[in-house]
Amino acid sequence: LCQEKRHDELIERLLGAIDNLAKSGAEFAALSANTPHIVFDKLQARSPIPLISIVEAACEEAGRRGLRKIGLLGTIFTMTGDFFKAPFIKSGIQVVVPQESELSRISDRITKELELGVVRDETLAYFQQVIAGMQDEDGIEAIVLGCTELPLVLNDEVSPVPCLDTMQIHINAIVREILRDE
After folding, report:
1. Residue 6 belongs to what H/E stretch?
2. Residues 6+ apart with CB under 8 A from 95
3. To 10 degrees, the CA torsion angle through 149, 93, 71, 95?
């Protein structure tokens, strides 16, 4: 649906799931992937319950760490869309994406390998090279793992710069919300 830019259909599909959660007693919901956040604002406006944004949580974490310039890896939709960058820019954090010639290759490694559970040393080496290039050429201070499969190959121990693992950051935000009223 994202690839075909069928965003209204994506909203309806996600809203149906959220409505079911709300009817079952859920007090809030979260989209557990980065790319569907392409419709997050419209979805949140129609949601019967609050939604916790993976993008906003990652932005808050970057701010907490005092970061001013971050790199972003993810699907082609995440890297090229404004939906992921906007909260960071609004918070005064510059977002750098890989060179245009790398975008499709990065997205392909995610969709044709990592999403299928295929983890290859060559893919790690490629991502390390891309991140190192962004650090050298653009001065990024950290890399946002803007796809929940990226932690299969990248983490602070193997990345040239610290990683912002959006999946773990989102989990932490969800747990904080659960514990907020206790």
Report:
1. none
2. 70, 71, 72, 84, 85, 88, 89, 144
3. 100
Return the number of other C-beta atoms located less than 10 Å from residue 172's C-beta: 13
Entry pTM: 0.89
Numbers of helices and strands, H then E, in the chain: 8, 6
Q: Rounded CA gap, 140 and 115, in Å?
A: 26
Pairwise CA distance, residues 75 & 150, whole Å:
10
Structural domains of the chain sorted by starting position, each given as residue range(s) with its CATH number in brackets: 7-54+170-180 (3.40.50.1860), 55-165 (3.40.50.1860)
Q: What is the pLDDT of residues 118-158, one digit of tens each?
A: 999 999 999 999 999 999 999 999 999 999 999 999 999 99
Cα–Cα distance for residue pair 51/94, rounded to 1 Å? 25
